[in-house]
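In line with agreed milestones, the collection of sequences with tokenised folds has grown. A representative record is reproduced below.
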Amino acid sequence: MKITSICCIGAGYVGGPTMAVIAQRCPHIKVTVVDLNAERIAAWNDEDVNNIPIYEPGLSSLVAEARGRNLFFSTEVEAAIDEAQMIFISVNTPTKTYGLGKGMAADLKYIELCARQIAAVAKDNKIVVEKSTLPVRTAEAIKNILDHTGNEVQFQILSNPEFLAEGTAVQDLLHPDRVLIGGDTSEDGQAAINALVEIYANWVPTKSILTTNLWSSELSKLTANAFLAQRVSSINAMSELCEKTGADVNEVAKAIGMDSRIGSKFLKASVGFGGSCFQKDILNLVYIAKSYGLNEVANYWEQVVIMNDHQKRRFANNIVQTLYNTVSGKKIAFLGWAFKKDTNDTRESAAINIADYLLHEQANIAVHDPQVNEKQILNDLSYLNSRSAAEIKKGITVLDDPYEVCKGAHAIAIMTEWDEFREYDWEKIYDHMQKPAFVFDGRNILDAKKMMSIGFIFSAVGSTN
């Protein structure tokens, strides 16, 4: 089947950038991104392309090139489904907050709603592509729903998980390590796989396009994120030991990273990992393992999340203990709120839990992040349901000027590794802080010797300086 029209349900961090790249590289294919959130779609269609809702380096120029030519953003979901030959499902799959599997299992209600909507609208054969991160064998449930429509439409289900790192998503899409496509082993299933392979082959070398069965593809995504998160928790576990023994975690990471069997990536000690995928996918993996009675497997992977939570608590405790066991009434400046640099995504950001902890200690927190606004920061803290909105607003100040955020502060906490933080006039910041002036570098991005020579009492993760 030659694909000429694609629909993507979900205009978020995965759907928007992925479809923008497909549209830009495949001008012969009409790409329509649909979402029920009218405000989000309006932002994607904003005349000023710099106002699109996802901040990713290089994304706005891609959207500017393709939008209106063969890339469209719409709330007309049914019309887009009807027209498309291939439908990508790219909706949120958060961890369940209720019922069976609460706190671990993926909530698939949005996936099921998509499947039912496709089933209700489709009048001709469709290829349905899972783009969201899903538990293994979810395709089976989707196919059961689609195959019982009674309208004799034939559906092929493919798994095409994304392996994007936020902050580098555009480059990851343009130059992927691999594109993974899982499908049925039948003749029709292979034809569907080939149709998707043809799309990616417009810019991805065929040697980098890997085809598997459905279940391998679905499980590969969870496994990849689990392995990456495991590396972060592993080096963070060693960071605590380094602090006790006088070792430097950066030196340890460099030494082991030069071993070709280990490699250097994801060995950066920090306040902890965040983002929409790592914790959610590991907990999902834990739930799946438990559902099959694989308790030792479940316990092994759950420890990765436990270690991450411990690292965040440890960082917050260190701030309180270093500031003479009380931060009540003290101004703590947060530089960074996004879970990593070059993105405005704050989901599961370490800053949220640490701010909540310090608010409970009655600290006054001032925040500056280059891409995250006050509304988002307040929403993040409200989502925890640990304090009232009025209490949160009373304890949090969000400012565009980093120097104002740091002015009069007792301590600064580096929560995101934004490059610009290195370039600040730290002597000026020091001059306008309370003394002694403390800096807690949760991302190990500042020069400890330089900071201490200015006069700061400096603390970095995994080092005694």
Notes: The chain has a mean pLDDT of 95. The chain has 18 helices and 14 strands. The CA atoms of residues 213 and 287 lie 22 Å apart.
